[in-house]
Amino acid sequence: MTTQPVDGHDLWAGLPDMDEPPAPVWEDPVPLAGPRKLTAFPIGSLPGWLREFVAAVAEETQTPVDLAGCIALSVLATAAGGRSVVQVRGHWREPTNLYVVVSLPPANRKSAVFGLLTDPLYEAEQQLRTLVQPAIVEAEMTARLAKEAADKATAKAASAGTDERDQLVATAIALAQTADSVSVPAKPQLLADDTTAETVTSRMAEQGGRIAVMSAEGDIFDIIAGRYSGKPNMGVFLKGHAGDRLKVDRQTREEYIEHPALTMGLCVQPQVLDDIGRQDGFKGRGLLGRFLYSVPESLVGRRKIEPDPIPEQVMETYRRHVLDLTLFLAEWTDPAVIQLTPEAVAAITAFQARVEPMLEARGGIMGQIGDWGGKLVGAAARMAALLHLAEHLTKGHMVPVAEATMRDAIALAEYFISHSLAAFDSMGADRIAERASTVLEALRTHGWREVSKRDLMVKLSRSEFRTANDLDPVLALLEDHGYVRAQAVQRTGGRGRPPSPRYLVHPRLTDPTA
Hints:
Radius of gyration: 32 Å
Distance between the termini: 37 Å
Shape: globular
Structural class: alpha/beta
Number of strands: 12
């Protein structure tokens, strides 16, 4: 076919060559997520006496207020966990224990902060032991005398003649049953010294279902992962958070806890979180989704040389209030039920409505950590109950949680959203985004304008991308962000391996001026 010029002009002049497709139009790509913007710790959410002490500790130790604030929540949970529950609505109740972990580099005086915050708990523990000591001595004496009487009766029955043996055996059995029924109270313990799964279980069984693990080190994660046993042992740590019935059969005895309540307040180095993300034992087990994470910025290098000391009155008020709350709740065998006002219920319901879209797997801010996000509203209810008890101390069970207290707890929950997202980044929860950055770098390095999955697999590390299927969610994310465009696969109809999917690459990856 030929064309004739009209008035000296070619009809096809200026039109694109029909053998060449028009160049694609690219919009600016959407950057992949960078460093998280972290929310400041809402110290104003804490009751006055606790707020003053937390601020004073942070000042004297020159540490982020987040550290003292988070450990303060763990202290409240140690006092109340296993002794109170919060009635949210309907049959929904939450226990008041918490798992909290703060990530800070070395030289941040973590041990000093832990000591200042937990000292009243050790004092309360000692006072509880003093109170129960007479009952322990009496029970031990009763048990010893009962056993001696049973042993004598057994010996007498064993040497008796046929005519009196039946009567003596019956007496020995009765005395043995009596001796076996004498229960010696355990010495009260609030904080576990040894943190293996077995000892935590035993301590909870002895202490009426509750115990706390407070540590300025991250060894507990190694222990949970199986440092001593060779395999992960998470049962008690999973059920101890949720309050699910725990039953353990041992060679020497059976341990049964109807409503276990374990509290954990930990401070670890950032490397610990990085290591957790590489340990298969933690993946998919649900334990990491139970912690509230804080990753504050270290003050090392910017600290005051002569900070203000903690005022004596502030320290004494903190000590007295923690003692009062701990000793009062220690007397409860059936948990105290903390109620919510209708306004508080409305506040947490509205918060739940805001959180739900964040959990959507594709696009939700917490879509990659849905296990954690799904527990956030419950954690807010727990913190509301703890703030309420801290405000009212020995009368907290007599009045319901106010709306203002619930909003304070929600502010804390929102704080933990940003920090927990950052923590899970460190643990590699969002591996897709991390891998997408690797692929972007490969596209820039090799200057591809168009690339196939097979080309990428040749260049990428097989330790990170073991199969071509590992690339699918990464390429989908890059396509969502406008970095690549999938091309239709041209089927040949012949035998053999199908063509590898191909992708157009945004020209800006190879030419920043494009």
